[in-house]
Design goal:
Length: 460
């Protein structure tokens, strides 16, 4: 039996708009995959390809959002679907994943074209699905065990407006397409929201063997053990531990209201606390390691995830954990691109950096959020332009939520302490806003509300 995809009603309006504006289109399907049914919440047209201003090797190494910003638009778009660039589509998918909350992912690809063009592009569409999967898996620091590897291909005929849906197992290079059922569905009021404010206080040594790695690699390697402990920990719902297979939705009445409130969705929001295992401290495994630097990552991040109403407790926990990991790694990549010249080309002895803070907005016609990351020196126009380009939606400053996290202030900087001293995690929890990463080499740095510190150690 093939997969069943329940598609939000608003998707049809979006498709009608695309058909009017262009003879063919290619883009992403975002939503949620489950063992029973899949949920498509939005289609996102892939923006026009750009010409690289970096080498092919650099592109393979780091196809991230800011790298894309350093490229210029090409003179013309491909003439047909068959000429689409699978690497560019995969880059777009990586950028979009950063902007989605936990539980919401790129679940497939859509193509809109005439029958002849669509028929000629079948091999290309398969390549694009596998290229996207390869790129997203490469960026995972905590591999997903037992995850769903089926992805959706939605083909829309621009002449008849007929939908043809198929699925393919991108985890198997030899797999072939199977029929899938695409059904319109109005289910926006069935999404459950999970939130958590998480205090981060990490001390990361950089061993000699890693001194030739990029700053990004050092940072990712240092944060990965924390991410793994987080995913192996437990979660408390309002201070209580719940059974993994228990229904996440605890509302007494799941029906709609009456009278004037009838049809008005009421979203259930659950606050979660994570209990994370401490680092292993086994004396039998103790050994002396020579380090060339130390990093400190301190602050508090806001995490958010969504699961469909019939989800179990373990599904919600998994989605929220994935969001924390995704958010941390996104900040690492963006910070690296922002300070690469300082960290890797200059002999900075002491420095503290703010990572970008997370801002949220609503996906039109849904109860789901998207997010973006904003640096202190960025203009609001840059943020809204980026959202418009990558998510293909128009938004104004008034519709963005900046209250979940904040930039570190001078007062925060003044309270920083020695990198080897014990920080007050309770203060971090109370602040519950903002995150930064500082980079320091060979000295003392204090932990602000959001930061990473990188020390290069001297003979002392």
């Amino acid at each position: 039996m093939g997969r069943t995809v329940l598609a939000d009603d608003a998707i049809q309006d979006y498709v009608d708009k695309l058909i009017k504006n262009s003879p063919w289109n290619l883009g992403l399907i975002i939503g949620q995959l489950t063992t029973q049914k899949d949920y498509a919440v939005r289609l996102i047209r892939t923006p026009e390809p750009v010409e690289d201003e970096v080498s092919e090797e650099e592109f393979e190494e780091d196809s991230t959002l800011d790298t894309a910003k350093k490229r210029r638009k090409s003179d013309h778009r491909p003439e047909s679907l068959s000429d689409a660039d699978e690497k560019w589509a995969a880059t777009h998918a990586k950028q979009v994943i950063r902007m989605l909350p936990g539980g919401i992912d790129v679940i497939g690809v859509f193509a809109l074209a005439s029958p002849n063009m669509m028929q000629a592009a079948q091999a290309k569409l398969r390549q694009i699905l596998f290229a996207i999967h390869k790129t997203l898996v490469k960026g995972q620091v905590v591999p997903e065990e037992g995850g769903i590897t089926d992805r959706i291909l939605l083909q829309i005929c621009s002449s008849t407006r007929k939908y043809t849906c198929r699925s393919i197992d991108v985890g198997d290079p030899k797999s072939s397409f199977r029929p899938a059922d695409w059904k319109n569905h109005s289910g926006g009021d069935h999404w459950l929201c999970l939130r958590s404010d998480i205090a981060i206080d990490l001390r990361i040594p950089v061993p000699v063997r890693s001194q030739n790695q990029t700053f990004l690699k050092q940072l990712q390697s240092g944060i990965t053990p924390y991410c793994k402990r987080l995913c192996g920990g437990i979660a408390l719902f309002n201070g209580k531990l719940r059974e993994p297979t228990e229904s996440l939705d605890q509302s007494e009445s799941k029906g709609r209201g009456k009278g004037r409130d009838k049809g008005q969705p009421t979203q259930q929001i659950q606050e979660i606390e994570f209990c994370i295992k401490p680092e292993a401290d086994n004396e039998s495994e103790a050994r002396v390691v020579e380090n060339v630097a130390k990093m400190a990552v301190c602050g508090c991040i806001h995490s958010r995830a969504y699961v469909y109403g019939k989800a179990e407790v373990r599904d919600g926990i998994k989605a929220l954990q994935a969001d924390v990991v995704r958010s941390l790694m996104a900040r690492c990549e963006l910070l690296y691109e922002d300070v690469i010249d300082v960290v890797e080309e200059e002999s900075v002895m002491k420095e503290l950096y703010n990572t970008p803070v997370r801002v949220f907005g609503k996906l039109p016609g849904t109860q789901l959020d998207f997010c973006d990351y904003m640096f202190p020196d960025e203009k609001m126009e840059e943020v809204t332009d980026r959202i418009e380009e990558l998510l293909d939606l128009s938004i104004t400053e008034e519709k963005l939520d900046f209250t979940c996290e904040r930039m570190a202030t001078e007062e925060d900087m003044a309270t920083t302490e020695d990198i080897d001293s014990e920080s007050n995690s309770e203060d971090l929890k109370k602040s519950n806003l903002g995150f930064n990463i500082g980079t320091v080499i060979g000295g003392v740095v204090a932990a602000a509300l959001a930061g990473l510190s990188y020390y290069i150690l001297g003979e002392t």
